[in-house]
Amino acid sequence: MGLRILLIVNLHKANASRLMHDIQSILETKGHSIYLCPFEGKPEIFPNGGYDIAFTLGGDGTVLYASRCLAPLSIPIFPINIGTLGFIAAVHPEQWEQVFDQWLNGTVSVSKRLMLAVELWREGDLLDTRYCLNDAVISASGIAKIIRLDVRTGSADLGPFRADGLIIATPTGSTAYSVAAGGPILDPELEAIIINPICPFTLSNRPMVIPAHEQVIVEVEREQRSNVLLTVDGQEVIQLKEGDKIIMQRASFLASIIASDRKVFYKVLRTKLNWSGGPDA
């Protein structure tokens, strides 16, 4: 019996349209039902329906978008990389058919990734809930403007933070914005959360790693000198107000990403960081 397969395609990538139609033709020949979700820029419409698997054609950003939409539905993601070298999208366009057959036979790895639920509370009311695979960032809307945040976990008060912003990252997101801001690199399948201040006013404010079962609670203090933004996975932006409370905690579901296991992660890490491991290191 054929599968219901969704193709999420970033048309900004070179050869994306051609590859989309090639994959569609091959899969339909094999008896699968194909549903197309091509987009340029920011995706606006997500097709309804139950799918057995979703292919992404793009880079890591396309996988982030797909994860927010599909992980709550327990739909696995098959990430074909037609972008630059990425940490998540690991299937080469020339190898997708072989890897897909391996998935059907149960002989390819499926990486289970922690996601965060990000709740926005205002004056005691829950206004919005978003999900992220990489990170949630609270920052000033202007350039190099310090904001004041009160930060605590479910079990400890971390006190006031004065910084350009704050990154709350998953292990998957540890190699994204967080590492550029001096944060640690975590194994992508760890269950932990990174709290990483961006350019803190107090040098003793350093990145922290806490257990994934903890909540991270951030309150926007009063009398800010700049507008404050919440950015989810670098793709969704929400304007915050003074007194807003953001509660971040592990989501009730994991993202299932095919052929993007720890072995792939460390291979990409060595390449991106130029780890030679030899006498010339």
From TrEMBL:
<keyword id="KW-0520">NAD</keyword>
<feature type="binding site">
    <location>
        <position position="145"/>
    </location>
    <ligand>
        <name>NAD(+)</name>
    </ligand>
</feature>
<dbReference type="InterPro" id="IPR016064">
    <property type="entry name" value="NAD/diacylglycerol_kinase_sf"/>
</dbReference>
<feature type="binding site">
    <location>
        <position position="164"/>
    </location>
    <ligand>
        <name>NAD(+)</name>
    </ligand>
</feature>
<dbReference type="GO" id="GO:0006741">
    <property type="term" value="P:NADP+ biosynthetic process"/>
</dbReference>
<feature type="active site" description="Proton acceptor">
    <location>
        <position position="60"/>
    </location>
</feature>
<keyword id="KW-0067">ATP-binding</keyword>
<dbReference type="GO" id="GO:0005524">
    <property type="term" value="F:ATP binding"/>
</dbReference>
<dbReference type="InterPro" id="IPR017438">
    <property type="entry name" value="ATP-NAD_kinase_N"/>
</dbReference>
<dbReference type="GO" id="GO:0005737">
    <property type="term" value="C:cytoplasm"/>
</dbReference>
<feature type="binding site">
    <location>
        <begin position="60"/>
        <end position="61"/>
    </location>
    <ligand>
        <name>NAD(+)</name>
    </ligand>
</feature>
<keyword id="KW-0963">Cytoplasm</keyword>
<dbReference type="GO" id="GO:0051287">
    <property type="term" value="F:NAD binding"/>
</dbReference>
<keyword id="KW-0418">Kinase</keyword>
<dbReference type="GO" id="GO:0046872">
    <property type="term" value="F:metal ion binding"/>
</dbReference>
<comment type="similarity">
    <text>Belongs to the NAD kinase family.</text>
</comment>
<dbReference type="Pfam" id="PF20143">
    <property type="entry name" value="NAD_kinase_C"/>
</dbReference>
<feature type="binding site">
    <location>
        <begin position="134"/>
        <end position="135"/>
    </location>
    <ligand>
        <name>NAD(+)</name>
    </ligand>
</feature>
<keyword id="KW-0547">Nucleotide-binding</keyword>
<dbReference type="GO" id="GO:0003951">
    <property type="term" value="F:NAD+ kinase activity"/>
</dbReference>
<keyword id="KW-0808">Transferase</keyword>
<keyword id="KW-0521">NADP</keyword>
<dbReference type="InterPro" id="IPR017437">
    <property type="entry name" value="ATP-NAD_kinase_PpnK-typ_C"/>
</dbReference>
<protein>
    <recommendedName>
        <fullName>NAD kinase</fullName>
        <ecNumber>2.7.1.23</ecNumber>
    </recommendedName>
</protein>
<dbReference type="Pfam" id="PF01513">
    <property type="entry name" value="NAD_kinase"/>
</dbReference>
<dbReference type="GO" id="GO:0019674">
    <property type="term" value="P:NAD+ metabolic process"/>
</dbReference>
<dbReference type="InterPro" id="IPR002504">
    <property type="entry name" value="NADK"/>
</dbReference>
<feature type="binding site">
    <location>
        <position position="162"/>
    </location>
    <ligand>
        <name>NAD(+)</name>
    </ligand>
</feature>
<feature type="binding site">
    <location>
        <position position="235"/>
    </location>
    <ligand>
        <name>NAD(+)</name>
    </ligand>
</feature>
<comment type="function">
    <text>Involved in the regulation of the intracellular balance of NAD and NADP, and is a key enzyme in the biosynthesis of NADP. Catalyzes specifically the phosphorylation on 2'-hydroxyl of the adenosine moiety of NAD to yield NADP.</text>
</comment>
